[in-house]
Amino acid sequence: MLKQTASAPSRRECLLLALLLIALLSLSRAGIGIQDSDASRLFPETESAPQDVQVPTTELERWRTRVTWTHKQVPLTTVVSHVPGWTIFDNLFLLNGTVFVVSDDPESVPERDTITSTGMEVQNGAEAVAARLPTDRELRVVTTDEAQELFGTSALLIDGTTWILNDPPQFLAHYYHWSAELFLGFWRTYSSLDPFISANGLSSLPAPRRIWFVHTDADHWKDYASMNQWVFRSVFPSITAEYSADWQDRAEMGHPLILDRVIFTDRSAAMKGQEFFRTGRIASEPFTLPGSVHWWNLIRGAVSKFSGLDTNLYQGSKPVITYISRQEWRGRRKLIQEDHENLVKELYKLRDQHGVEVNVVSMDKLSHAEQFRLAARTTIMMGVHGNGLTSLVWMKPSPKSTVIEFFYPEGFARDYEYTSRMLGMAHYGVWNNETFTQPQLPRVNYPKGFQGNSIPLNGSVVAKLCIERLQLPASTEN
């Protein structure tokens, strides 16, 4: 039996194959294929990449791991947006653990101490303040010539959007400081780049790819109740995290990195801002940036939906009052028991006379999902100054949305007052028989605001305030 053998290709077939290969090569060089949209982030949108800079963009170069350039063509760093403590950069460089801003106009770069710090804990006193001031070890502004000497002709690429959090663990593992301060401030800063976020939370912004905790390990940003990680990962399920050991690993590589886009956050730097001096809240600085009135809807909606409540579909038929009780809490800050019982009685009277929904809850007795769903449905939230009031960030703002906070007489802190107003809701403080609100606020008085288990409260005053805020008919019953 004879074997069949394949005949050699003809000269014509060889020529056609060669032409096909040349055509494919030409198409790839011309950039035909699926483009990685983040490649454009390497240079300002108003400029094209210099001809001598090699930016991988084609389907054949999906692994965008390096940016190269020729002499004097180092990509410039762009300060996209800045307020003290909150800065957005494009093309930010890192080498040996130091942040580098490449600019031939150094005067245009914000003051270093309004961008970053040494990352030490925030303590009082001139010595402690001086210890937090950044040096060339933390951040340097260099010209393109200096960058050429430092970096050579290439850098490893970290693509997409990175949140660099330069804070120490001091305030991270706390639900309020994380969700209502750092995370809220981060999103207010980033969302300023999209002034068209819609009422249902749609945005053109790409989700951040990663968060870097420069001075914190994996265990010291999570709060005891696991609320921080629930919030963060329900909003950004694909995000990755790197910690202080990872930062050190990258520093010890001794090779320059270039990051597409960075939101750089630093508490000590934010404390240099005028808004912080006025409010005492580091998240107040980003609120001077432009943005959509619906900027927080994306975050609120993601958390609510993940918890099982679609706020776009939920149509409450009646107002919801939620009293966050601390009476079963061990130790600090709760109402006098008799005053607590009287408040509950007054709230249930509102329920019976006006048909409002009343919830008296200890948040630690509810699951995470139950807490978020309840907060998202609440019209009036009230309670003694404490961590439970952080749930106000999940309330849906409306003309009737209100937070009522109970303080020891003469005590006051702006944590929840400021947060309520920045989210478009009213806030009232209560000192037993007295109520107050913006603009007639008392001075901040932490010692009195953080008194122990003996806070007096007149429940009928609170009930009357609820009637006013919900625009209910006055009760005819004593």
In short:
With 478 residues, the chain is α/β, with parallel strands linked by helices.
Can you characterise this structure?
It is a single chain. With 478 residues, this protein is of the alpha/beta class. It is 29% helix and 18% strand. Strands 1, 2, 3, 4, 5, 6, 7, 8 and 9 form a nine-stranded mixed beta sheet that branches. Helix 10 links the parallel strand 10 (320-324) and strand 11. Helix 4 packs parallel to helix 5, helix 9 crosses helix 11 and helix 10 runs parallel beside helix 14. Residues 1-6 and 27-50 have low confidence and may be disordered. It is found in: Membrane. Pfam families: Glyco_transf_61. It is a single-pass membrane protein.
| pLDDT averaged over residues | 87
Order of helices and strands: HEEEEHEHEHEHEHEHHHEHEHEEHEEHH
Number of helices: 14
Please give the share of residues in helix: 25-40%
Overall geometric form: elongated
Query: Which value, in Å, is the CA radius of gyration?
Result: 28 Å
Structural class: alpha/beta
Terminal Cα span? 112 Å
Low-confidence stretches: 1-6, 27-50
What's the story with the biggest beta sheet? 9 strands, mixed
Strand content: 15-25%
Total strand count, please? Answer: 15
Membrane topology: Single-pass membrane protein
Signal peptide: 1-30
Keywords: Glycoprotein, Glycosyltransferase, Membrane, Signal, Transferase, Transmembrane, Transmembrane helix
GO cellular component, one term: membrane
